[in-house]
Design goal:
Layout: H1 23-30, E1 43-52, E2 58-65, H2 79-94, E3 98-106, H3 114-131, E4 133-140, E5 148-157, E6 160-163, E7 169-172, E8 177-181, E9 184-187, H4 192-195, E10 205-206, E11 210-218, E12 227-229, E13 232-240, E14 243-248, E15 250-254, E16 259-263, H5 273-276, E17 288-292, E18 299-301, E19 315-316, E20 324-326, H6 328-347, E21 357-362, H7 383-386, E22 387-388, H8 394-402, E23 407-415, E24 418-420, H9 426-433, E25 439-441, E26 445-448, E27 457-459, H10 460-468, E28 477-481, H11 507-514, E29 517-523, H12 534-539, H13 544-556, H14 566-569, E30 576-580
Parallel strand pairs: 2-3, 2-4, 4-17, 5-14, 21-22, 21-23, 23-28, 28-29
Antiparallel strand pairs: 1-3, 5-8, 5-9, 6-7, 8-11, 10-14, 11-13, 12-16, 15-16, 18-20, 19-26, 23-24, 24-27, 25-26, 29-30
Helix pairs in contact: 1-3, 2-6, 10-11
């Protein structure tokens, strides 16, 4: 399909290669793009809508999902988004950048090959980098994610039971070291694949379904460097679909000989040559990537779920699988509100009340100290007013969000749908938020109730209700989310990115669009780390994208793997990505 210019005529770009190829021509010549030559174009059409800023400086590509762009005139209010994107491009230009806004029509429907589309986007970024000083790409709307699987020869000491050569189970004490070579999903969203432009990710992608071998073995009291005959072992496989597989160490089993051949040096295949030469060999991003996608949270209650005043009510349930329906106009509204908040954050001086850090935690310890490197003055802050690490229930979370702060740390046990705060009184929650925006099905009807949130669940329904009542906070902020799988899109292991179940009611996006958050760095895996050097980089004036990249640099310089979590943890920076705008910095006073 052809995507039409909507608001601003295309502005020709002046960066050239041999006075021939420009950023314009590089993008125009790229699509349609068929990565593997199977007749299915991963990038079906690309069109530059407009550009802002002088050539020669850093360039930011703002890639916008074509579904959100009107193809003929101001359709259904969508021109509001283009106006918001134009303002954003002007903001980037005012900071000395070149902003190029591109409408993207990507492969949808079968076959399920999100990773192949990611490789097509990566090829676009690599081509663009040749003709300009590319700082990064902001993906606006629904784009595919890279699902990352890693197999590591992990030496462990633990009690376990494994089959011996005769098949009988043998028990081993924790003093016995075993080798565990088991594929594991380590990031449901890994934007490193897009950001590492000199890596070798193409050879690691498998559309699948693919059965990856799995081995746990004991050789004796210790693990021989090259392996050998096993005392006991368990083999199997892990099935994956549409994934990038990072293999760090070979474990080849021989069932006849009941042996396992190990090769610890057979690793780091995703790394470009310069990254393989680092002290801790690992892929490091060359540019920044972030996402602003409201598709999975742009839901409104179905007809009959609210009274004339807009309050949630019970309603009959025949034929209603969910009390919510996606609404495109609401999606546009959320995106426009986000860019308005983004504009305010980057153009207004930091007001004194917001010139402070704030931390919220439940069961994971305060994250306040991790923020203090961003401002020397913050080290003398009144911790009592800035830190909520006791009795952090949902009501306390609402109060915390309404207190001004430019940089926040959020530490709660999490999953792709929400975070676990302290137990909360449902009646108290109703006093603050009114009738629940969470409907529970009892077979005959859906009825609103906060009882399911008595556990302290901070999820889509909670943040949606807070937004509806104007309680998500008024002061824009940057956020470090240390909860597990906070940035993992729901249903990403089973469904393609264009499936309606993909990313629905996502945790990170619920916070991004229903609070005053403008950018969030978080993990897409169950793990325990936080990005080292992040706050210090912000304190130096770096963007949140550069602060994200700093973590990879710090980890890659480790003198010993024990500094970075051992063999299983040395690539933990791969788990982290950004939602929101990577170009944002802490505002000036």
């Amino acid at each position: 399909m052809r995507l039409r210019h909507a608001v601003v005529a295309f502005v020709a770009l002046s960066v050239t290669i041999g006075a021939q190829e420009t950023v314009e021509s590089a993008i125009a010549a790229f699509a349609p793009h068929d990565t593997d030559g199977d007749g299915i174009a991963e990038a079906r059409a690309l069109e530059v809508l407009f550009a802002r800023g002088a050539a020669g400086g850093k360039t930011v590509l703002v890639l916008v999902e074509a579904r959100l762009i009107p193809v003929a005139g101001p359709a259904r209010g969508q021109s509001k988004l283009l106006t918001a994107l134009d303002q954003h491009a002007q903001d980037l230009a005012a900071e000395g950048r070149r902003a190029i806004v591109v409408a993207c029509d990507l492969h949808r429907g079968p076959p399920h090959q999100d990773g192949r589309t990611i490789l097509a986007l990566r090829a676009l970024l690599r081509r663009t980098q040749v003709v300009c000083n590319l700082e990064g790409a902001l993906l606006v709307g629904r784009f595919p994610d890279a699902l990352l699987v890693r197999t590591c020869n992990w030496l462990r000491n633990e009690k376990l039971s494994l089959p011996g050569k005769d098949g009988a189970e043998l028990a081993f004490e924790a003093k016995t070291t075993n080798v565990r070579s088991v594929p594991e999903i380590v990031a449901h969203r890994c934007d490193l694949v897009l950001a590492d432009l000199d890596g070798k990710w193409e050879g690691l992608y498998a559309a699948g379904p693919l059965a990856l071998p799995s081995t746990v073995a004991v050789f004796g009291d210790t693990v021989p460097p090259r392996g050998g005959p096993a005392v006991a072992m368990r083999t199997g496989h892990v099935d994956v679909v549409d994934a990038f597989h990072v293999r760090d160490g070979l474990a080849a089993t021989d069932a006849t000989q009941f042996s396992v051949r190990l090769d610890a040096e057979d690793r780091d295949h995703e790394c470009g040559d310069s990254d393989r030469a680092r002290q801790n060999a690992m892929a490091v991003p060359d540019i920044a990537i972030s996402r602003v996608d409201a598709r999975g949270v742009a839901y409104v209650p179905v007809d009959g779920a609210r009274d004339a005043a807009g309050r949630p009510i019970a309603f009959a349930s025949p034929g209603v699988p969910l009390p919510w329906r996606h609404d495109l106009l609401f999606e546009i509204e959320l995106l426009c509100a986000y860019f308005s908040r983004n504009h305010a954050f980057r153009t207004n001086s930091l007001a004194a009340p917001a010139d402070r850090p704030a931390a919220f935690a439940h069961e994971l310890g305060s994250g306040l100290d991790s923020l203090l490197a961003a401002r020397a003055e913050w080290r003398d802050i009144d911790r009592g007013s800035a830190d909520v690490s006791e009795q952090g229930d949902l009501v306390a979370l609402l109060r915390w969000l309404q207190q001004p702060s430019a940089l926040r740390a959020y530490r709660v046990h999490s999953d792709p749908w929400g975070g676990a705060c302290a137990k909360t009184d449902p009646e108290r929650l109703q006093e603050v938020l009114g009738a629940s925006w969470h409907w529970k099905n009892d077979g005959a009807s859906w009825r609103p109730t906060w009882t399911d949130h008595s556990s302290g669940r901070a999820d889509f329904a909670f943040f949606r209700a807070a937004w509806q009542h104007g309680l998500g906070g008024e002061h824009p902020f940057l956020l470090v989310h240390a909860g597990c799988e906070a940035l993992s899109p729901p249903a990403s292991t089973k469904h393609a990115f264009d499936d309606e179940r993909y990313g629905r009611f996502a945790h990170a996006e619920s916070m991004l669009f229903f609070t005053a958050c403008v950018a969030m760095v978080g993990r897409a895996k169950v793990f325990y780390d936080e990005p080292r050097g992040f706050a210090a980089a912000l304190g130096e004036g770096a963007s949140i994208g550069d602060a994200w990249r700093r973590y990879f640099e710090v980890e890659s310089q480790a003198r010993d793997w024990n500094e970075v979590g051992g063999d299983i943890g040395r690539k933990r920076a791969y788990f982290w990505s950004i939602v929101g705008d990577f170009t944002l910095r802490l505002p000036k006073r």
